[in-house]
């Protein structure tokens, strides 16, 4: 009983299933020295009073204030860290032109480590302040700056999964921003994997190297094959973009006479530790291959509204057994907040279900059974993200990491619209999901350590 390094008393919201929110009212949460939730005690349990009497008044015993609630920390499955420097701009062009006009010139600047330090330091702080405790990052082609991002995550206490981006095809990438050739890209990726694994030895919350071909159009066959081999050799996570837009989807069909999913699989890039961004244009066969290989989808609904020419058929893919989580896709998605993306996931799904062209009859306008609830969107931002990464995060549950955000519904600058002292707790949950601002996120904890206070 005295092995707990932290004990919290309060009310928590966590996903029970993709549809159901579990409300743990006035529970005790006991955290061990590794930062894992080792015991959750209900008020009616025998030990409850005894634990309170033993620990109360001590520094490690935290009683949440009135109006404060616990939520799992969010898992952002798709962030382009370098693009934070252009977030909110460059939203006017389609994907291919956007990459060449704005994004590659910006990413090329991360050969400068001082610039990388200033952007990456601010981004990690900002994501933590928005409740994101785990993030799956694309860095740039530069090995040193990519390693710096992992070091910043390590130092600031965020669980970071970081990829040095590979883009070696001279036909598709500008001379000022690409890997020198496939061999160099693979050597540097291997060095990066080893350096992050070494760094991880001293990091409580974990930092992980990720094999990261930007997307098939950026990479030669040799690089794609070599990256699949490296992921297998070092048992790493893998990330890329898959079937995102009409252009990207058709490019791969023309080059390989097959869809992204099957091409990626041929190179050994689909596994239980793979997370593919977007994947809007998966056919049923592609989706079945994702389910079979354990490949997850990073759903980025805000980004999709600008760049994907479509809305992800989320229900269809979930029913086929694919793990799905949420991503901001900074900067194609211009917000650091998964709250914004959870709302957008609901909105986009409603528009997919109803359809958008008022000139069509109602029964021909949309795709039936597409809408998702805010409960499902919350699941995607939390438990769905953890499942996608195969890491025990995203739930407030025994055996999971103590990665939480403490929400203050009464903070004067951003009081939530709760006026009844006996407000239904599920209504409070919904009001949090729809109305929270960074001001309401008072504390963020990762792996049992406080990493943000406001
Ligand atoms: N496809 C290849 N690179 C990118 C990127 O940086 N953002 C998005 N949204 N799609 C991509
Ligand atoms: Fe992206």
From TrEMBL:
Keyword Protease set for record: no
One BP annotation, GO: guanine catabolic process
Catalytic activity entry: guanine + H2O + H(+) = xanthine + NH4(+)
Protein name per the record: Guanine deaminase
Domain called Amidohydrolase-related: residue spans: 69-450
Pfam families in alphabetical order: Amidohydro_1
Cofactor(s) the protein needs: Zn(2+)
One annotated GO molecular function: guanine deaminase activity
Top class in the EC scheme: hydrolase
Cofactor descriptive note: Binds 1 zinc ion per subunit.
Record keyword rRNA-binding present: no
Transmembrane segments: none
Pathway entry: Purine metabolism; guanine degradation; xanthine from guanine: step 1/1
Signal sequence range: none
Family the entry assigns: Belongs to the metallo-dependent hydrolases superfamily. ATZ/TRZ family.
InterPro entries linked: Amidohydro-rel, Guanine_deaminase, Metal-dep_hydrolase_composite, Metal_Hydrolase, Metallo-dep_hydrolases
A single cellular component GO annotation: cytosol
Domain of life of the native organism: Bacteria
Protein purpose: Catalyzes the hydrolytic deamination of guanine, producing xanthine and ammonia.
Record's keyword terms, sorted: Hydrolase, Metal-binding, Zinc
EC number: 3.5.4.3
Gene3D superfamilies: Metal-dependent hydrolases, Urease, subunit C, domain 1
